[in-house]
Input
Amino acid sequence: MLAKIATAGQNGQFRTPRHIIRLMVELTAPTPADVICDPACGTAGFLVAAGEYLRERHPNLLHDAKQREHFHHRMFHGFDFDNTMLRIGSMNMLLHGVESPDIRYRDSLAQDHVGEEEKYTLVLANPPFAGSLDYENTAKDLLQIVKTKKTELLFLALFLRLLKPGGRAAVIVPDGVLFGSSKAHKELRRILVEDQKLDAVIKLPGGVFKPYAGVSTAILVFTKTNSGGTDFVWFYEVEADGWSLDDKRTPLLSEEKLGPVPSFLRHSRESGNPRSLSDDEHAKNNLPDVLARWVNRVEIECERPRTAQSFCVPKADIATQGYDLSLNRYKEVVHEVVEHRPPKEILAELAKLEEEIQQGMKELESMLG
Output
């Protein structure tokens, strides 16, 4: 519905493109044992995509009675405070084969989380941005983590509250979360880096949410540990997601080459002849490369220079920068090397050129006679 009217909802909601949702699901790789939550679920797009991923990657999931019971009744949880969205989300899950998902009314930031704390193993979300709540309307357990009125920071605190130790999250945040200078911004980033395990910051192009939002965003991928564990953070700058970055958002490639796992790549792997996108195709769709590099982030990525599209930054460097997580803080620009010649050499060449011009003038005068 939001896509049809091309505007954000009155509470700052806007539709998350399916290929971005699928990328986040692939990054976190849900398992049949996971308990998945989206505390700002809207139409339940993240939960639907997680269900589709599990059916594809674990085809025997529904053949096991215990796993089937878990999948239909205990795996999927979504909260929202818009009753229309809740009805659409419930219907969406049912139409995608989940019999009894937990999709219910809840103001995630205003209610305390007794009974929900440390209940989930995976959080996937794109929470509303740029909102502001009064302290008296905000759940006190969230304010204990970070005292702020900004909804994007409160949602991050909420994700940490909801996750079990060892649980993981992939969530979309506005760029301001990465470099904001307020005490709350810095403290939340410090918590992610020092107290938890921040795995990745994936910067998205500015036009991903057009036509109804031009905000610059990034995907944060982290694991709740309560005991640190961040050795380095993997950064990737997505420059193209397969669609034009204007208001029209037209596809730049054929359908089989779009998304994080293009269908033609799946078919090539099944036939035993693995392929990848060409350089020209990669320039239009970076998402398959994000997944390929994500898998190798421990071995290969740590060797990449900071001039590359992706690279790793040690925790100590991030701490030195006041826990700034903006990619541009660490990315190094390749400067074109200009060869400068010595002044004497240039002057000698100019003198020789002047001599040749004068000689040419004399020859011309003698010819004209």
Remarks:
- Residues 2-330 form a domain with the Rossmann fold fold (CATH 3.40.50.150).
- Strands lie at 36-38, 76-80, 102-105, 120-125, 163-174, 197-203, 217-223, 232-237, 310-314.
